[in-house]
Amino acid sequence: xxxxxxxxxxxxxxxxxxxxxxxxxxxxxxxxxxxxxxxxxxxxxxxxxxxxxxxxxxxxxxxxxxxxxxxxxxxxxxxxxxxxxxxxxxxxxxxxxxxxxxxxxxxxxxxxxxxxxxxxxxxxxxxxxxxx
Length: 132
Known about the structure:
elongated, three-stranded antiparallel β-sheet, 38% helix, alpha+beta, 3 strands
């Protein structure tokens, strides 16, 4: 959805913020896959008192590659193999890029709406009482 235009704006050249919004929307549309969540690669100690992970220096178990995400409000973790990490890492990176670009697009859109409507994002004066 584009910002509303007024008749006097119809013949004006495209503004830089509008060009930026279109560029971001185009870049987002070019991403073909994205996986939500986060990746963690960790090495761990086990509970066995005589295990090598308790030695000095410790030889930890792992590395374990964990993909964590929310499904229906609950945290789910899945272990990935190194091959799966190589295969899906670009999709995790795409999701991060989408989040960054979406934040930028929202900021540009908010500024465009504020400029078009004369709005400000300043909180109302706390000494003023709301009407009503």
